[in-house]
Amino acid sequence: TDDRPSEQPLVQSKTQEASKSSMFGHERDRLYKSSTCLDTCVDSGHLDVHPQTHKTKTFTCDTCSAKFRHASSLRVHAKRCTGEGLLKSKVCALACASSACKCNLSPAESSHSICLQLHKYTHIVKKRFKCDLCPAEFSHSTSLACHKREHAGAKPYKCNLCPAEFSKSARLRDHQRTHTSERPYKCDLCPAQFRYSAVLRYHNRKHTGEKPYKCDLCPAQFIHGLSLSYHKHKHTGKKPYKCDLCPAEFIEITKLRYHMRKHTGEKPYKCDLCPAEFTHSFSLSRHKRKHTGEKPFKCDLCAAEFSCGANLSRHKRGHVGEKPYKCDLCPAEFSRSQSLAYHKRAHTGEKPHKCDLCPAQFSQSKSLRNHKWAHEGKKPYKCDLCPAEFSHGTSLLYHKRKHTDKKPYKCDLCPAEFSHGTSLFNHKQKHAGKKPYKCSLCPAEFCHGTSLRYHKRVHTGEKPYKCDLCPAEFTQSTSLQNHKWAHVSDGPYKCDLCTAKFSCRSSLSRHKQIHTSEESYEVIPVLQT
Question: Which end is more exposed in the chain, N or C (fewer Cβ atoms within 10 Å of the end residue's Cβ)?
Answer without folding.
Answer: C
